[in-house]
């Protein structure tokens, strides 16, 4: 059994709001983390048409999307999907639940048809981009849509996601997504109230880092369900009694089924109404009935019970007549008409509204959420007249009653805040709400979590606008699975285990080298490095110089024929005094290479120190070496051993097994051990320690070392180190002190 081991780090995740930011409509969000991209929903805005109704797709390179998850079939969440799949560079995988896909297909067929008719009659020309896609586009994209069940988890390239019931409409899902230690929950539209056919949304048993939650109703409180049902049936009943007609504009499917269940039951109980027809004007009604029957297992207990007890489809209504077109009905007498679209922008519901609105006996009842900018929203202000759709110059008087009884299955403040409490995320992004309710919800949540401000549990709430990007920080927990031999011999308590960390996508596995091939197909190669340098110094001096630089060195062999020691447990140095050669050996690796570089630099520079050679050869006591060293200053110029070109050679120019010809002590005379050369040595030592982080200033004035946000400047005039970080300054001063010791003999007076 693999075990897990964890570590905490600060991580950043990007959230892009392409739609549904401070608005209800064209939902589309992108979560990007460590190069993986998840897109959530691809809707259209019901108040606009054509290209204008799309989310801001130009704001993100859709070719980078790995996975697109569609929460439910409503047009403001799904209707631009064929456009994304057929007319952009999107090449990711698309997922939705089984019922969502089944209904989506019919709905979008209808959407293509309705927008085409409307835009035709609007007299729009072809260049207006009124048509986002054709039936053909829709059909060819269908095959590429994959389906998933509630509670099933799918993994795509290290992105794991699970669908949970969201209430709202048949098949609506929340998605819990995990990638590389980041967990986020996207609610989509959701409801926390059991209604006639759907269960309430579930709370996943996981604490995500980030919650993306709808805010449609902001801080509003729903009227209790029973009261709403009573109001609906009362308004309808009294309208019919006074000889009027009722229009209920609804979205073709979903909430319509809930209204139908309420009315069918009410008619059952009221004999006086049974000869009054209820029309459900939807070309999709018949087709979707099958879907509602097939997925009865995804609905709540009461509807399942009804189904199993009576063996009848609860959606085969007794008092409701399905009609495909509004013009086929007799609307001279009282009747109830349930017709789409819900926003009254076009189609059957709009035709009937225009026809019925001058008669004060009639009533229009808004049962859904009315989006800003649509006729549905405008009607709620009870205008005296409305513009005719086919001729905006013509106004139609509005005398019919306007009522609003909401059956929109979105959470109210109490339900939403309770859910948010339970989810317990520290970063909350509000979407799917008009500016005001969304802003009010943000304030309410902030004051709800005020007590956590400036603590570890501080809750941040965001209400991004369309086109904006959020950079969110969270505490990432890295979990690595311990596999193979390591897992069988884990320490009892919480001791550390060490091994080789192998990453595939976001999965981290910790293994022993021996298990590499079996578990990862990788092989391990150890690169042993070896360099031989000329080194004409005695062992005592070499030892002293290394202890000056590294503090401690471990003597391995100290006999007359061989002298070798180890630096920082990784680099082994062997000195052959008779040959004047030093061999440096280490395993190739970032850290070990750096230590080896320093060792090479020391050997090169100590070889170039004129005095060291002669004097130190007499010394065996470490305590006396310092004296020897200062004596060296007095040595004459011709004691210099190293050629000019060797002095300026950079450490990394030495190849392995370089043997330099022995330099004849008397034949090679350097002109001078100038301060310049001395400074070059210091630069070389600093470079060996800090690599490319060390940069020399022009004219040998000094150098800079930049590590992270800290920058240190070294002035070669006085060897002062200017640095805000005491730690870094201390480290550099220590190295400088030792370097100066090493090159001190070079200063000539
Ligand atoms: Zn919805």
From TrEMBL:
<protein>
    <recommendedName>
        <fullName>Endoribonuclease YSH1</fullName>
    </recommendedName>
</protein>
<dbReference type="GO" id="GO:0006397">
    <property type="term" value="P:mRNA processing"/>
</dbReference>
<dbReference type="InterPro" id="IPR036866">
    <property type="entry name" value="RibonucZ/Hydroxyglut_hydro"/>
</dbReference>
<dbReference type="InterPro" id="IPR011108">
    <property type="entry name" value="RMMBL"/>
</dbReference>
<dbReference type="InterPro" id="IPR001279">
    <property type="entry name" value="Metallo-B-lactamas"/>
</dbReference>
<keyword id="KW-0540">Nuclease</keyword>
<dbReference type="Pfam" id="PF10996">
    <property type="entry name" value="Beta-Casp"/>
</dbReference>
<dbReference type="InterPro" id="IPR050698">
    <property type="entry name" value="MBL"/>
</dbReference>
<keyword id="KW-0378">Hydrolase</keyword>
<dbReference type="InterPro" id="IPR022712">
    <property type="entry name" value="Beta_Casp"/>
</dbReference>
<comment type="similarity">
    <text>Belongs to the metallo-beta-lactamase superfamily. RNA-metabolizing metallo-beta-lactamase-like family. CPSF2/YSH1 subfamily.</text>
</comment>
<keyword id="KW-0539">Nucleus</keyword>
<feature type="domain" description="Beta-Casp">
    <location>
        <begin position="256"/>
        <end position="379"/>
    </location>
</feature>
<dbReference type="Pfam" id="PF00753">
    <property type="entry name" value="Lactamase_B"/>
</dbReference>
<dbReference type="InterPro" id="IPR021718">
    <property type="entry name" value="CPSF73-100_C"/>
</dbReference>
<keyword id="KW-0255">Endonuclease</keyword>
<dbReference type="GO" id="GO:0004521">
    <property type="term" value="F:RNA endonuclease activity"/>
</dbReference>
<dbReference type="GO" id="GO:0005847">
    <property type="term" value="C:mRNA cleavage and polyadenylation specificity factor complex"/>
</dbReference>
<keyword id="KW-0507">mRNA processing</keyword>
<dbReference type="Pfam" id="PF11718">
    <property type="entry name" value="CPSF73-100_C"/>
</dbReference>
<feature type="domain" description="Metallo-beta-lactamase">
    <location>
        <begin position="25"/>
        <end position="244"/>
    </location>
</feature>
<dbReference type="GO" id="GO:0004534">
    <property type="term" value="F:5'-3' RNA exonuclease activity"/>
</dbReference>
<dbReference type="GO" id="GO:0003723">
    <property type="term" value="F:RNA binding"/>
</dbReference>
<dbReference type="Pfam" id="PF07521">
    <property type="entry name" value="RMMBL"/>
</dbReference>
<feature type="domain" description="Pre-mRNA 3'-end-processing endonuclease polyadenylation factor C-term">
    <location>
        <begin position="493"/>
        <end position="746"/>
    </location>
</feature>
């Amino acid at each position: 059994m693999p075990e897990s081991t964890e570590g905490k780090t600060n991580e950043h995740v990007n959230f892009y709001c392409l739609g549904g930011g401070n608005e209800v409509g064209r939902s589309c969000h992108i979560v990007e983390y460590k190069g993986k991209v998840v897109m959530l929903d691809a809707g259209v805005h019901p108040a606009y048409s054509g290209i204008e109704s799309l989310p801001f797709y130009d704001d993100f390179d859709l070719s980078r999307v790995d996975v697109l998850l569609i929460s439910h079939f409503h047009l403001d969440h799904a209707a631009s999907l064929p456009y994304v799949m057929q007319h952009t560079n999107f090449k990711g995988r698309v997922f939705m639940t089984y019922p969502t896909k089944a209904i989506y297909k019919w709905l979008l067929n209808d959407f293509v048809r309705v927008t085409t008719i409307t835009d035709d009659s609007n007299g729009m020309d072809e260049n207006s981009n009124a048509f986002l896609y054709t039936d053909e586009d829709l059909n060819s994209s269908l095959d590429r849509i994959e389906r998933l069940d509630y509670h099933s988890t799918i993994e795509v390239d290290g992105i794991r996601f699970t669908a949970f019931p969201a209430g709202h409409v048949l098949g609506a899902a929340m998605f819990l997504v995990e990638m590389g230690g980041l967990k986020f929950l996207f609610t989509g539209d959701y409801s926390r109230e059991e209604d006639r056919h759907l269960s309430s949304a579930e709370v996943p048993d996981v604490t995500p880092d980030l919650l993306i939650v709808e805010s449609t109703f902001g801080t509003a409180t729903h009227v209790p369900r029973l009261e709403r049902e009573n109001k609906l049936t009362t308004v309808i009943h009294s309208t019919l009694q006074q000889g009027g007609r009722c229009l209920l504009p609804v979205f073709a499917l979903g909430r319509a089924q809930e209204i139908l269940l309420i009315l069918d039951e009410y008619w059952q109980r009221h004999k006086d109404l049974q000869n009054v027809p209820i029309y459900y004007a939807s070309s999709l009604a018949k087709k979707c009935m099958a879907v509602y029957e097939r997925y009865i297992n995804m609905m709540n207990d009461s509807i399942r019970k009804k189904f199993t007890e009576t063996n009848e489809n609860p959606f085969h209504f007794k008092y409701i007549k399905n009609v495909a077109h509004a013009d086929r009905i007799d609307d001279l007498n009282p009747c109830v008409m349930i017709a789409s679209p819900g926003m009254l922008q076009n189609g059957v519901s709009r035709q009937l509204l225009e026809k019925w609105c001058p008669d004060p006996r009639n009533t229009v009842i808004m049962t859904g959420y009315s989006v800003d900018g649509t006729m549905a929203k405008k009607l709620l202000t009870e205008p005296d007249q409305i513009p005719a759709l086919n001729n905006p110059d013509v106004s139609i008087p509005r005398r019919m009653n306007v009522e609003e009884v909401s059956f929109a299955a979105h959470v109210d403040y109490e339900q939403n805040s309770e859910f948010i409490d339970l989810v317990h995320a520290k970063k909350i992004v509000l979407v799917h709400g008009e500016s005001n309710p969304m802003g009010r919800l943000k304030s309410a949540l902030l004051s709800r979590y005020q007590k956590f401000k400036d603590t570890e549990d501080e809750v941040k709430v965001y209400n991004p606008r369309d086109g904006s990007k959020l950079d969110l920080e969270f505490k990432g927990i890295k979990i690595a699975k311990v596999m193979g031999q390591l897992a069988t011999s884990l320490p009892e308590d919480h001791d550390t285990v060490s091994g080789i960390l192998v990453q595939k996508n976001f999965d981290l596995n910790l293994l022993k080298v021996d298990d590499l091939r079996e578990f990862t197909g990788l092989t391990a190669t150890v690169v042993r490095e070896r360099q031989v340098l000329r080194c004409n110094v005695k062992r005592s001096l070499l030892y002293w110089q290394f202890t000056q630089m590294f503090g401690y060195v471990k003597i391995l062999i100290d006999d007359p024929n061989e002298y070798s020691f180890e630096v920082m447990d990784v680099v082994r140095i062997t000195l052959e005094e008779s040959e004047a050669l030093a061999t440096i050996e280490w395993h190739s690796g970032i850290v070990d290479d750096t230590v080896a570089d320093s060792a090479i630099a020391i050997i090169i520079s100590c070889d170039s120190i004129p005095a060291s050679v002669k004097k130190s050869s007499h010394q065996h006591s470490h305590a006396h070496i310092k004296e020897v060293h200062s004596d060296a200053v007095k040595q004459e110029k011709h004691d210099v051993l190293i050629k000019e070109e060797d002095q300026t050679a950079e450490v990394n120019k030495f190849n392995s097994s370089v043997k330099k010809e022995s330099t004849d002590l008397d034949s090679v005379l350097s002109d001078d051990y100038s301060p310049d050369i001395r400074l070059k040595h210091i630069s070389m030592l600093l470079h060996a320690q800090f690599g490319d982080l060390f940069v020399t200033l022009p004219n040998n004035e000094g150098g800079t070392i930049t590590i992270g946000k800290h920058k240190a400047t070294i002035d070669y005039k006085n060897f002062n180190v200017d640095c805000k970080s005491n730690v870094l300054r201390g480290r550099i001063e220590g190295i400088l002190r030792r370097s100066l010791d090493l090159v001190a003999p070079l200063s000539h007076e």
